[in-house]
Amino acid sequence: MSFIINLPLFTVILGLVAVVLTSFLNGKISKIINIVVEITAIVFGILVTIYTSKNGYVEYQLGHLAAPFCNQIRFGPYEGVLAIMIPLVMLLSLLAGDSHAKRDIVPNKIHSFYTLLDLALVALIAIVYTDDIFTGFVFLEISTLSSVGLTMIKNHGRQIAAALRYMIINLLGSGLFLLGCIFIYGETGYLSMTYIQGKITEIFASNQSVVGLTIAFTLISIGLSVKSGLFPFYFWMGDTYGENTTTASSVLSGLISKGYIILLIKFIYRTFGINNVLQTSLLDVLFILGALGMIFGSITAIRQKVINKMVSYSSAAQIGYVFLGIGLGEVGLVAATFHILTHALCKPLLFSTSNRLIDASGKRKKFANLKGTGYADKIAGIGFTIGSLSMVGCPLLAGFISKYLFVTESIMDMSTTTGKVKAIITIIALVVSTLLNTIYYLRTVMTIFNTNREETFELKRNKYDPMFVISTICFIALIFALGMFPSSIISLIEQGIALLG
Amino acid sequence: MSSWVLIIIFIIPLLSGLLMSIFKPKDRLMKIISYTSVILTSILVWFSIFLIQDEGFVILKIVEKYQISLRFDNAGKIFAGMVSLLWPLALMYSYGYMKHDERRGIYNNFYVMTYGVVLGLCFSENLLTMFIFYEMLTFITLPLIIHPMTSEAKRAGRIYLYYSLSGSSLSLVGMIMMTTSLGTNSFNLAFEMSQSASTLYQIGFVFCFLGFGVKSAIFPLHYWLPTAGVAPTPTTALLHAVAVVKAGVFALIRITYYLGGASLLQGTWIQYFMMMVASFTILFGSIKALKEQHLKRRFAYSTISNLSYIVLAISFMSRLGLVSAFLHLVIHSITKICLFFCCGEIIENSSAKYVYELNGIGKKMPLTMISFTLASCSITGIPLFAGFVSKYYLIKAGLSLANVFSYIGVGCLIVSALLTAVYSLSIPFVSFVNKPNEKNQQIIDKANENSKEMLAPIITFSLLCLVLGVGSSFLVSLFMNLFM
Predict the structure, then answer these.
(1) Which of A4, A203, A240, B326 has its CA 20 to 30 A from that of A429?
(2) CA distance A21 to A17
C-alpha cells in the first residue's frame, strides 16, 4: 500500500484546487466542493494514520533530489491524528453554522467564505505535514490571511475593527517567526527540519556559542504564542471570536489557533530537538505563561456579560492548558495533544449552540436575557450543557481525560526540583482553573435552563435546522467517545510522539 | 445473584422519574407509578443485600485505573439499606405535605429520581463511579431546593450549586491525585498497610476532604445547608438530613477507610486537621442551633453539628471509629428525619415557623409532639434511646485513641450533647408546659393533625428511635461483625 504515502500531498493539492475553483464558482457549489474536500481529507487522514501506525513514519520527497536540497514532508501517527481532526472539526462546524453563514454573510461573498475555509484547511494540513521550516512559514502566512479574512467576513463595523487588530497581532507574530527562521538558517544553513536538528545538536554539543539559536528559539516561540493567544496576548479573542459568524469563530478558535501550537510543537520536537530545548529555559517560560493563562483567561471569561465573549475568552484558558502541557516537556505532550483534540471538539460545539441560544432570545446576548432559552431550543441547550460539562472535566466526557492526563503526567518527573515545582504549579493551576471554569460554565447552564423569566420580550422558537442537529449530535458523540474510549487515541498519540523526534 | 442486577435497581427510579416528567401522567397514575417504583426498588435492594455477593461488575473501562464499575459491599449495604427503608415512608409524607402544591408533579419526579442516584452512589465500586453519582446528586436535587421559586429559594439554590460545584472541582483533582499515587481507585477496606502515604496522596486526600466536606457541611463550607432550609420540608428532611449530607459523609468514609486504608493517614497532620475541624464544627453547630429561633434552621444547624460527629468518628481512623461512624450515620438519619417531619407537620398544619410560636401546641397536636419528644430524646443521647448508642461508641472510640486531639473531640462531644438537650428538648417543653399566649393563639387554633399520610411516617420513625435504642445490641453486633 505504498500509494498511501502520496495522500498527504494529494490532500494539500486537492485543497488548493478547491481554493481556485471556489473563488469563481457560486456559493452553493462552493459549499459542496468544500464538503467533498473535507470528507476526502478525513478519509485520507484515516488511511495515513492506519498506515503509519503499522509501518512507522514516512519521509516523502517532493522532487527528485533528497531532503536538504528539495522540500520534504514527513508524517507519522501523530500527524495522522491531527490530520483527521482538522477536516473533521471543520466539516462539523461548517454544518453547524450553515444557517448562520447564510444569514450573516452578504450573498455575493459567500463563495469567498468557502474559499477562505478551504485555504485554512490547506494551510493547517500543510503545517501538520511539513518538514521544512520555510514551507511552514509560507503556510503560516496563508493561514493568517485566511483567518483575517474569516474574521471580517461578516463585514460589519465592529468586526472590521476586530479583524484589523487581529491582523496586526498576527503579522507581528509572523514577523517574529520569520526573524527566528532567518536566525536558524544563518546558524545552521538548512531549512529542512531533520537536518537543522542534527546541526543544532552538533552546535550544542560542541561548546560553541548558542546565543543565536537561543534568540531563534525565543523569537519563534513568542511569534507562535502571540498568534495562538497565549497569556498575555489573548486580549483580541473577545471580538475576534465572539462577534463572528458561527463557523468562522469555531474554525478560528478550535483549529487555526491550534495550528500555530502544532507548528510550535513541531519546532520544539522536530527542529530544535527536545534535548537541546531542555538546555535553555524556553519550556519553563512557556509552562509559567500557560499556567498564568489558565487562570487569567478564566478570570477574564468570568467577567464577561455576553455569552459568546465568555466562550471566546475561555479559549485563552484552554490555550493555557495546552502550553502548560508543552512546558512539562516530553511527558506533558500527550496531555497537550489530547487537550488540543478535546478543545477542538468542545469549542465549536459551544459556539454553535450559544449562537443558537442567542437566536432564541431574539439576538440578545446578555446572560440576563438568555433565561429559558435552553427550552426554546432544546438541542442547543443540551449541546451547550454537554460542552460545558466537558470543559469542566466531568467524568465520561473528553475534558476529564485531559485533566487526568495533565495530573498524571505532571507528577511523572518528581526526581528533580524543577519537576516538583512544576507538579505543584500544575496542580494549583488545575484546581483554580477548574473551579473558575465550573463557576462560569455552569452558571450559564443554570441561566439557560431557568424557567423564571421576568423579561418583557418573548422567546422565539428556532427553526428546525437538520444540519445543526446532525453536527451537534456528532460533536456530542465524539466528546463522549473521547471520554469513554480514549485508550486507542492516547496510544496513537504516544506512538506518534515517540516517532516525532 | 450477580452484580449486574444493581444496574436494574438504580435505573428503576431514575427511569420512572424520567418517563413521568416526559409523559406527565395524571395525579392518580403518577402516585401509583411513584409508589410502585420506589417500593419495588426498596424490595430489590433488600433482596440484593442478602443475595448479592461482594464482587465487582465492570460497566466500562475508560483508561487504565479508571473504570465505571459497581459492587455492593458492606458499607454500601448499610447506606443502601437505610435509604431504602426511609424513602418509601418519605414519599408518603411528601404526598401529604405537597397535596396543595401546584407544581407537585415535577417535585415528585425529582424526588423519585434522586432515590436512584443515591443508590448508584451506594453501589459504586470505585471513586470515579462514586464521583459521577455524586455530581448527579448535586444536579438532581437542585430543582427540589428551588421548588418554591421564591427569590429566597433561588438564592439558596444558587448558593448550594456554587458550594457543591466548587467542592466537586476540588475533589475531582484530588481524586486524580490519589489515584495516581495509589495506582488504583477501587474501594477496599484495609487497615494494615505496609506502604507509607506519599505527599501526593496526602495533598489529594486534603483536596478530597475539602471537596466532599461541602456536602458534609464541615465548618467553613456549611453555609449552604441552613440556607437550603427554604426548600419544602420533605426535601429538607430526606435530602438535607439523610441523602445528600450523608452522601458527603459516606464519601468521606470511602476515601478515608476504603482507598489507601486508614492506617496510611493515622498519626499524620491530616488526622489532627480532620479532628480539629470536626470538633470545631460540632460546637459551632450546636451553639448556632441554640441561638436560632427558626424551627427548621435550628435543626439544620443541629444537622451540621451531628454530621461532624460522624466526621470526628471517621477521623479516629480505627475500626471502632468506622463502626461508630456508621452507627451514628444510621441512627442520626432516622432521628433527624423524624424531627424534620414533625417540624414540617407543624409548619404545614399550623403555620408556626418559630420556636416561640409553639407555646401550648402540644395539646392540639399530641401525637406529633410525643413523637417529637421521643426523637429529641434520641438526638440528645438519653439512655434507652437510639442516639445514646452511637454517642457511646463514638466516645469509646475517641478515648481508646488516647490522643490530645481525640480528647478535645470527646470534650466537644459532651458539651455539644448538653447543648443539644437544651435546644431540642426545649421545644416539647414549651409546647406541653407553656400555655398559649395572645400572640400565637391564632396559630394554635389552626393547628391540627388530620393528615394521616404525614402522621404515619412520623410515628414509625419515632418508634424506631426507641426500638433501636432498646434493641441496640443487634445493630451494634451486626456492625461489629461487619467491620471487626
Answers:
(1) A240
(2) 6
Q: Give me the domain span that covers residue B434.
A: 266-484
Residue B478 domain-assigned (yes or no): yes
**Residue B183 backbone zone (phi > 0: left; psi -120 to 50: alpha; other: beta):** left
Q: How far does Cα A241 stand from its chain's mean position? A: 13
What's the one-letter identity of residue B42?
S
**B429 in contact with chain A, both atoms CB, cutoff 8 A:** no
Residue B150 C-alpha, separation from nearest chain A C-alpha, in angstroms: 10
A393/B172 Cβ within 8 A: yes
Alpha carbons B38 and A353: distance in angstroms, whole number:
37
Return the H-helix or E-strand segment holding B152: helix B151-182
Of A401, A431, A490, the CB nearest to B169: A431
> Could you write out the three-class secondary structure of A215-235?
HHHHHHHHHHHHHHCCCCCCC
Whether residue B352 lies inside any domain: the answer is yes
B207 touches chain A (CB under 8 A): yes
**Residue recorded with cell 421548588:** B147
Residues 6 or more apart in contact with residue B76 via CB below 8 angstroms:
B122, B123, B124
Q: Which residues of A touch B161 (CB under 8 A)?
A: 442, 446
pLDDT, one tens digit for every residue, chain A (501 residues): 578 888 888 999 999 999 999 888 888 898 999 999 999 999 999 999 999 988 888 888 887 777 677 788 888 899 999 999 999 999 999 999 888 888 888 888 888 889 999 999 999 999 999 888 888 999 999 999 999 888 888 877 778 888 888 899 999 999 999 999 999 998 888 888 888 888 888 888 887 788 888 888 899 999 999 998 888 888 888 888 878 888 988 999 889 999 999 999 999 998 888 888 888 888 889 999 999 999 999 999 988 888 888 999 999 999 999 999 999 888 889 999 999 999 999 999 999 999 888 888 888 888 888 888 888 888 899 999 999 999 888 888 999 898 888 888 888 777 788 888 888 888 888 888 888 888 888 888 888 887 777 766 777 777 888 889 999 999 999 999 998 888 889 999 999 888 887
Domain ranges of chain A: 281-501
Asked whether the beta carbons of residue B63 and residue A435 sit closer than 8 angstroms, the reply is no
